Amino acid sequence: MKIAICLMFLISCSILLTGIDSRADSHQNSEMEKVTLLLDWFPNIDHAPLYVAQENKIFGKHGLEVELLWGGDPDAPLKLVAAAEYPFAVSYQQSVTIARASEEVLPVKSIGLLVEHPLNTISFLKKTGIKTPADFKGKKIGYTVAPLDVLLFNAIGANAGLSEDDYELINVGTNIVAPLLSGQIDAVIGPFRNYEINMLKLEGAEADYFALEKHGIPDYYELVIITNDAYLENHPETAKKLMTAIQEAIQFTKENPDDALQLFFKANPDARKDLEELAFRDTLDVFATTQVQSAEKWAAFAKFAYEKGLISKAVEATDCFINVLEE
């Protein structure tokens, strides 16, 4: 009898504690702030720390429930954030600079970093014999994004002593690898050094590239996290929580690369593993080491963009970014 009473007592306690735990979980979930972070492109290894933060519950640790969303249009995230349709997005330093200098200013700011150096390159097959940018003379050059890629290539050509009549520029859109392999073009500006170079390698082609920042283009932040000016003013703590979580996830990614890669694959089971593994290896060193953005870096690119005609008016670096973790 005593045994039966004890068992009933233990069962009752178990039910009671389970109910308490359930209410605690429910209470914790109700306190989570739900926000959406728009991706700049379909999910890829550039976003690995974001998926680490999601899968490893780092966002949750900082009180956030973050939806990572890709809408299929690379131009949309910045515009949607500027219009206050969504709070956050992954974007580019160049895009933020252009947005702040547009006739009707798009009110977005970078609040932190994901990839701190350019991934964009001028890529070519080794069999073309190209050794320096001066070798682009007489060549057919593909580009993916106008006018940005055209401006960047012309600046690199001029830096190498070439005029715009020394080469032919051809718009290849997003179809980068096939025109190179077929010989339709000799080189192309727009491939990322962690992706297209490895795609060519997997096709059995030996390729090489020039890093833009080593040939006359100011170093710039490849991927930044942006928000709307008004949203930032009204939700500064949310922005801080987001960037704290992202930086923690980046640190985890750098310190535990194998685990981070598996978390990415867990979140994206249909990803092409052979390509993503190579891309991941070539991205680790450019994931952000700090969330302190450089005013000099923002100013240098804004000055370059104005002098080259990418933007029609000067823009202040401080209008383009804010270091929310220093506020």
How large is the count of helical segments? Answer: 14
**Secondary-structure content class:** alpha/beta
Number of domains: 2
Extended strand count: 10
Radius of gyration: 24 Å
Instruction: Report the CATH architecture of the largest domain.
Output: 3-Layer(aba) Sandwich
How far is it from the N-terminal to the C-terminal residue, by CA? 65 Å
Stretches with pLDDT under 50, minimum 5 residues:
1-28
The level of helicity is 40-55%
Structure in words:
- The protein is α/β, with parallel strands linked by helices.
- The chain has two domains: 31-117 and 220-326, D-Maltodextrin-Binding Protein, domain 2; 120-214, 3-Layer(aba) Sandwich (D-Maltodextrin-Binding Protein, domain 2).
- The chain contains 14 helices and ten strands.
- The chain has helices at 2-31, 48-55, 58-61, 76-82, 93-101, 148-159, 177-182, 196-202, 229-234, 236-255, 257-267, 273-281, 295-307, 317-320; strands spanning 33-38, 64-69, 88-91, 108-115, 120-125, 140-143, 168-171, 187-192, 207-211, 223-228.
- Strands 2-1-3-10-4 form a five-stranded mixed β-sheet, with helices on both faces. Strands 7-6-8-5-9 form a five-stranded mixed β-sheet, sandwiched between helices.
- The termini are far apart.
Summarize the model shown.
The chain is an alpha/beta fold and 327 residues long. The protein has 14 helices and 10 strands.
Walk me through the topology:
Blueprint: H1 2-31, E1 33-38, H2 48-55, H3 58-61, E2 64-69, H4 76-82, E3 88-91, H5 93-101, E4 108-115, E5 120-125, E6 140-143, H6 148-159, E7 168-171, H7 177-182, E8 187-192, H8 196-202, E9 207-211, E10 223-228, H9 229-234, H10 236-255, H11 257-267, H12 273-281, H13 295-307, H14 317-320
Parallel strand pairs: 1-2, 1-3, 6-7, 6-8
Antiparallel strand pairs: 3-10, 4-10, 5-8, 5-9
Helix pairs in contact: 2-10, 2-11, 5-13, 10-11
